[in-house]
Amino acid sequence: MSAGIVFHSLAALAYAVLAVSLWRPLTRGDAQAHAGKVGRICLLSAIILHGIGLQQSILLPNSLHLGWALGLSAAIWLGMIIFWLESLVLRIDGLLLILLPAVTLVAILAAVFPEGHNVPHANNDWLRAHLLIALTAYGLITVAALQAMLMTALDRQLHRPVEQEANRNFISRALDSMPPLLVQEHLLFRLIWIGFFVLTLAVISGAVVSVGLTGKPFPLDHKTVFTLLSWLTFGGLLLGRYARGWRGRVALRWTLVGFAFLLLAYTGSRFVLDVILQRG
């Protein structure tokens, strides 16, 4: 068993324990999910374990090893770092109720499906920089998409009739423990603005790498097409936000569509090749 699998498994266990510690009080009738200082330190420890697992799995001597699960793991790991930094200045512990189960699942997938392929031209500095930028954009937009899903559920919860306390389930209490929608919307668009900027850098750096390797800035392959579709979607969303004040359900739909395109650009296609078609 490789060190990468071991550390991904340890990270998944740490994330799962933290998730249980937050969800358990809600099942007993508590109204709030609160991580506290100890919880933040434990979360940072889990993130460090996760990072070591990625380093052991991806950064091989003189090469880079990537697969659909490792790419998704690296993206959500970067997203968790961003969330942890945000949590130092904003009270957004409630978002961990959805982030922790998601990152637990992704860490398990990376441990179960460590297969991948060695990235060609891995010694190219531009390529390494492009991969780092692209994964950072992926991480930002992944967290934004998870938050959009949470906001969608919270919006539906707010439009339901008020339930008696005795009749409310722990899901309802979990949604009530989330930050207000306005706070979440502010955080969502901050993530999207930063993610769009980093995604733009990824498109530019990818074009530079492609010109150096193939002579074409935008080859017509699935990665390029879906990445550009995602870039156009988020660009359209931000333009609509500026020009027409888009928010609420419209913004959430655009966010999820943009994330779906980005997911298909690498992880989705690699899943089909590596798992369904079993091609390296």
Description:
The relative contact order is 0.12. This protein has one domain (3-276). The chain has 280 residues and is mainly α. The protein has 9 helices and 3 strands, in the order ααββααβααααα. A 3-stranded antiparallel sheet has the order 1-2-3. Helices cover 76% and strands 3% of the residues. The radius of gyration is 19 Å and the shape is globular. The longest helix is centred in the middle third of the chain and has 34 residues, at 125-158. α5 packs antiparallel against α7 (181-214) and α5 (125-158) crosses α9 (248-276). The two termini are 21 Å apart.
Output the helix-strand order.
HHEEHHEHHHHH
Question: Mean pLDDT, as a whole number?
Answer: 83
What is the terminal separation in angstroms? 21 Å
Determine the oligomeric state from the structure: single chain
Which class of secondary structure composition applies to the elements? mainly alpha
Instruction: Give the strand line-up of the largest sheet.
Output: 1-2-3
* Low-pLDDT stretches: none
Rg measurement, Å: 19 Å
Described by strand count, sense and barrel closure, the largest sheet is:
3 strands, antiparallel
What is the total number of structural domains? Answer: 1
Fraction in helix: over 70%
Continuous helix count: 9
Count of strand segments: 3
Shape: globular
Beta-strand share of residues: under 5%
Considering the chains and any ligands shown, give keywords for the structure.
280 residues; mainly alpha; three-stranded antiparallel beta sheet; 9 helices; ABC-type uncharacterized transport system permease subunit; transmembrane helix; Cyt_c_assembly; transmembrane
